[in-house]
Specification:
The protein has 232 residues and is mainly α. Helix content is 51%, strand content 3%. It has two domains: 13-117, Orthogonal Bundle (Arc Repressor Mutant, subunit A); 128-231, no CATH class.
Length: 232
């Protein structure tokens, strides 16, 4: 982990596994015994799978005439799952990505062998610790935005808004969940397409100075007001 890293890149369990010939599980076991953390690798696996799903949704090479993701053959030079993984997840084996997406229910295998996308977003199904590490990054970004807006006192504010009503009948909640999820997903996909065109990892010819991490996050909230009153 310490001596055979690539300059400028974080060392990962996957690379150590390749270098040593040990399985990833065995590498994790040794690291855990030595008090090392496998958190970076967990986050990397999440990012790679998420990029594959996002690429499937936005890349016209993997879509039909209407722009919807098509079912992909496992291998092939055009519109295949292996090509999708190579384009959006580097040198990670396509089989490993497929196993992960199958495990969380993001894709399914059809009778003819093709792979169909079921969910337009990748949601990890790992341990609670892994989930907290991955999702905790969202909390950090939200807190950073709140802190920025407080410190700048209205100068150069970052967008931070919400819409909320506190007397909505339970019968309307299911419809609102579906509506908010659909519209939020559509908006995020539009932002993803714009950012991907300006990201130098995706487009090495993109000009400009510096390196900035930027994005937009959306979250849903819901609370039973009557239950809250009873608890008090």
């Amino acid at each position: 982990m310490r001596e055979f890293g690539i300059p400028g890149k974080k060392q990962t369990v996957s690379r150590v596994s390749i270098l040593t010939g040990l399985t990833r599980k065995e590498v994790q076991r040794v690291l855990a015994a030595q008090g090392e953390s496998g958190v970076d690798d967990t986050r990397e696996r999440y990012n790679r799978a998420a990029r594959v799903v996002a690429g499937w949704v936005r890349d016209p090479d993997f879509a039909d005439a209407s722009g919807d993701p098509i079912a992909l053959s496992p291998e092939g030079a055009r519109a295949s799952f292996s090509l999708l993984v190579k384009r959006y997840s580097g040198d990670v084996p396509a089989r490993a990505v497929l196993d992960e997406l199958l495990r969380v229910g993001a894709v399914e295998k059809l009778d003819d062998g093709r792979i169909r996308l079921l969910s337009r977003a990748y949601i990890p199904s790992t341990s609670d610790v892994d989930k907290l590490d991955i999702l905790g990054a969202d909390v950090a970004d939200l807190v950073a935005t709140i802190d920025h807006n407080l410190q700048r006192s209205g100068t150069d504010p970052r967008f931070q808004r919400k819409v909320m009503y506190d007397n909505v009948p339970e019968e309307a909640i299911a419809e609102f969940r579906a509506l908010s999820a659909a519209q939020a997903q559509s908006f995020l996909e539009a932002m993803d397409k714009w950012l991907s065109r300006h990201d130098r990892d995706r487009n090495p010819d993109q000009q400009g100075k510096g390196r900035v991490r930027a994005g937009v996050g959306i979250y849903y909230f819901e609370e039973n007001v009557e239950q809250r009153s009873e608890d008090k």
